[in-house]
Write a structure and sequence with these properties.
The protein is of the alpha+beta class. Helix content is 32%, strand content 16%. It has a single domain, classed as 3-Layer(aba) Sandwich (Glutaredoxin), CATH 3.40.30. It has a 4-stranded mixed β-sheet, with helices on one face. A two-stranded antiparallel sheet has the order 1-2. α1 (40-51) packs parallel to α5 (169-179). It starts with 6 loop residues before the first strand and ends with a helix.
Length: 180
Amino acid sequence: MRLYDYSVLNAKGEEVSLKEYEGKVLLIVNTATGCGFTPQYKELEEMYEKFHNAGFDILDIPCNQFAGQTPGTDEEIHEFCTLKYNTQFPQMKKSDVNGENALPLYGYLKEQKGFEGFGKGVKALAMNAMLKKIDKDYKNNPDIKWNFTKFLVDRNGNVVARFEPTDDMKKVMKQVEELM
């Protein structure tokens, strides 16, 4: 299968085929409303505004699998994001990204780009320490580790990069810009 063979549900529960995004640069991100990384919504919206008219989209998939940091309904999540961060990009139905109920799309994304570490810095060290307590072998599986993991897809549907939540958003912006 290829990326465009998958679909997700939007916040209203309607099926959205990823074929709708064919020919666009796409950033797929699992989000949360009550996470230390939630302020990344600001940079995501800035990216969306800067590149959307040139063929860039963001697929926001809220997820409550990480410390229950997205407890609200789809409507409450949407309201939070639009009021606090003025988000305009498509927001999908809250979904799992790991485990038996994970969206099939996430199985595909994780096959294409596995976990390669959190990088360096204070946030990376904190994430490593926290995850070691949860799963001693976390480094050796491709699972999504936390909220705001991002997958960058080129105009041909190739998953070209995976960004962990600890990655600097400037790095994400730079790679998006290169694909534009």
